[in-house]
Amino acid sequence: MKYFCSVMIAIALVGCTATPPPTQKAQQSKVSPTRTLDMEALCKAQAAQRYNTGAQKIAVTGFEQFQGSYEMRGNTFRKESFCLLF
Question: Hey, what's the signal peptide range on this chain (predicted)?
Fold first, then answer.
């Protein structure tokens, strides 16, 4: 009985020291600033055409990167929201 308790404690300690498997993370590529600015200009031009306004009256408020695509959100001066995917 004395040895059984010792063995159980040893097994419990070994189980606690095991390292957990590493978490998987999505691959993220670096986006150059010029490419981001080009996408923002294209986003503003498309939104201006869609909402029948000038590109200078479009505000891009969010930029999000996913595995293979990009998402830009923004507003017009009339507070109309839009989301463009690249």
Answer: 1-20
Task: Kindly state whether residue 7 falls inside one of the protein's structural domains.
Answer: no
Dihedral (CA of 42, 36, 27, 18) sign: negative
**For every residue of 28-68, which 3-state class applies, written as one string?**
CCCCCHHHHHHHHHHHHHHHHHHCCCCHHHEEEEEEEECCC
Q: Is residue 36 part of a domain?
A: yes
The number of beta carbons lying within 10 Å of the beta carbon of residue 80 is 13
Whether 50 is covered by a domain: the verdict is yes
Token code pair at residue 62: 């969010």
Does 10 score more than 60 pLDDT? yes
Q: Please check whether residue 73 is in contact with residue 82, taking contact to mean a CB–CB distance below 8 angstroms.
A: yes
Sign of the Cα torsion 50, 51, 53, 58 reads negative
